[in-house]
Amino acid sequence: MYEFEFETPATVADAVAALQGDEAQALGGGQTLLPTMKQRLASPSRLVSLSGIAEMSGVSADAGTVSIGGATTHGAVAAGAGAYPALADLAGHIGDPAVRNRGTIGGSLANNDPSADYPAAALASGATIVTNAREIAADDFFDGMFGTALNEGEIITRVNFPVPEAANYQKFLQPASRFALVGVFVARTSDGVRVAVTGASETGVHRWSEAEAALSANFSASALEGLAVDADGMISDLHGSGAYRAHLVAVLTKRAVMAAG
Length: 261
Fold this sequence. Notes:
This protein is α+β, with helices and mostly antiparallel strands. The protein has 3 domains: 5-49; 54-162, Uridine Diphospho-n-acetylenolpyruvylglucosamine Reductase, domain 3, CATH 3.30.465; 166-260, Enolase-like, domain 1 (2-Layer Sandwich), CATH 3.30.390. Helices cover 30% and strands 23% of the residues. It has 10 helices and 12 strands. It has helices at 12-18, 33-38, 74-80, 85-92, 97-100, 105-111, 118-125, 138-141, 209-217, 242-260, and strands at residues 5-7, 24-27, 46-49, 59-62, 65-69, 128-131, 135-137, 156-162, 166-173, 180-189, 192-198, 206-207. The longest helix is centred in the C-terminal third of the chain and has 19 residues, at 242-260. It is globular, with a radius of gyration of 18 Å.
């Protein structure tokens, strides 16, 4: 490691102030940032910890919406988001117990790893990402691999998830990292069905519009017969080819629909 300043603000306003200036970096659970710093791939001069900000922690449910503070750990989401079972189940299968007890939903969304689970949940649910400055619809938040609509120094303070009529998340686990080799989140509401895919595409988390149209007309696995995902633009690496990932998207979408139904 190397020398850096470490600040522990008690309020969002204090955190925003501490992030002003060059080389300051917000720190959630540190599950991505700290390993990156150890490998000298990032070298912020100041870390601003968000874990002690009470207003950014906790899970609440009201009027069909589950609201989760940005500094809430995966374990706390798994335990507290019972009003949205598919989301609670997703959180309960992120990483291992050590990761779930440190990693945060805000950190995961802000990092937008192309194989992370929460981006699929947010996109499929039509969630709203609330920051210290504004509210951002999930459809407008994600911007390619590791890219988001967040501005410099902007903090995710809360994420609001509308609870769908039915939902399920299916993940094909990459056993070494426990990230999703491919993950599919399906959510059905009165307005139709949304299908979000993580882990598969070179553009990061995205919606599968053809499946959404078919499932909105007939919410059953049979509605997906004959649909296939184009392998072009899919991630191809030592864990699986683009064609393999494309195949998994279709398989996992069917499984998610069956489980949700």
